[in-house]
Structures are given as structure tokens and as C-alpha cells.
Amino acid sequence: MTPPSQKPALPRRTAKIQEAFDARDDLAAALTAAGIQLPAMDVRTPWPDTEGDGGARPARYALVHLGVCSAPVAHALASAIRNGTAG
């Protein structure tokens, strides 16, 4: 376990990483408007790129992690998608 004083640094928010945070927030707002809440939406970056000298560069992109959800939430999400594409 990492001691509190040695917590890993948060990724520097490059344009691509900020894009992932904005996408997560946009999706969360849309889901909330549809009455759906995913319990563990997050933004994750891959491990930092390693340079030839052993140093690390900040991650260049991030992914919106949707986490897990219950079966009823999955059905509600599927229904919202279907209803949104029906028009």
C-alpha cells in the first residue's frame, strides 16, 4: 500500500485528458436527465509512456471508464439508447 505522503500524482490535464473529463461530465449529465446513474464513472489514463532513459512522459490520452452497473440500470440505459435512436 502506498503511504499517504507518496500518493501517485494525478495526470497533468493535457487537451486529450481534458476532453475525456468533459466527455464524462457530458455523459453523466445526459444519463441523469434520462433518470440513469452509473455508480462509478471515472477517467483513467494508461501508464505514463516510458522514454529511453527510464524517465516517464505524461499520458497523452485518457479513457472514460463507465464502471459496473446493476441489471436494472443496464436495461434502463439500453432503453434510453433505443428511445433516442428511434426518432
Topology:
Blueprint: H1 15-33, E1 42-44, E2 49-50, E3 56-57, E4 63-65, H2 71-85
Antiparallel strand pairs: 1-4, 2-3
Pick out its properties.
87 residues; two-stranded antiparallel sheet; alpha+beta
The succession of helices and strands, N to C, reads: HEEEEH
Task: Write down how many β-strands occur, each being a DSSP E stretch of 2 or more residues.
Answer: 4
Strand content: 5-15%
Q: How would a crystallographer describe the biggest sheet?
A: 2 strands, antiparallel
Q: Any overview of this molecule?
A:
- The chain is of the alpha+beta class and 87 residues long.
- It has helices spanning 15-33, 71-85, and strands at residues 42-44, 49-50, 56-57, 63-65.
- It has one domain (12-47, 56-85).
- It has a two-stranded antiparallel sheet with strand order 1-4. The protein has a two-stranded antiparallel ribbon with strand order 2-3.
- The radius of gyration is 17 Å and the shape is elongated.
- The chain starts with 14 loop residues before the first helix and ends with a helix.
Task: Give a summary of the structure in a few sentences.
The longest helix has 19 residues, at 15-33. This protein has a two-stranded antiparallel sheet. Strands 2-3 form a two-stranded antiparallel ribbon.
